[in-house]
Amino acid sequence: MTLFRLLPPRWLAVLAAGLGPLGALAQQPVEPVPKLPAAIRRALPAGYTVLDAAQGDLNRDALPDWLVVLHRPDEQKTSDVVAHPTKRPLLVFVGGAGGTYTLAARADNAVYCVDCGGMMGDPFMHLAIKKGYFTVEHYGGSAQRWTRLVTFKYDPAARTWLLHRDGHEHFYALAPEHGTTTATTAKDFGRVPLAKFDIYK
Prior knowledge:
mainly beta; 201 residues; four-stranded antiparallel beta sheet; 40% strand; globular; 5 helices
């Protein structure tokens, strides 16, 4: 799988518009962050702003749910990828009757830090949701590029999301078709709840 198959529409739009090289992708999204319901906005922890959000059915009950990635406004100054990366919490809000929302899970180590992308800058790309699954997508590197797509699946018995697949791609910027792709699944890592997943390990 090549990078261009992984890119969501907002990143492809950057390329189509001729706004710069691939290195600009990780820092210049062209779509605004979706507006969150008021109930979710009130539940967000102090000291953070919303980096990205996505709506979908996360627990297969046909009600709208939300993923929210938070970041600190000063993360560019405070984060050090080697010594102390400034974390970006990922929150899962599940919808209920009457437009209510409940915080069902929080993961502080599911999204890379602002300076975790190397020369490419901020590696965070996109959140994707589909029928009880969701994926956190990253892209970074320099001449040697990489992608990392981490997918979680809802487990009704555990009433939480478990790590489902951790996919990596490495390729040279001028020859992405010759890249290598690897992936691990639950057969490799067992049962890993979202809250205990650590992308830094």
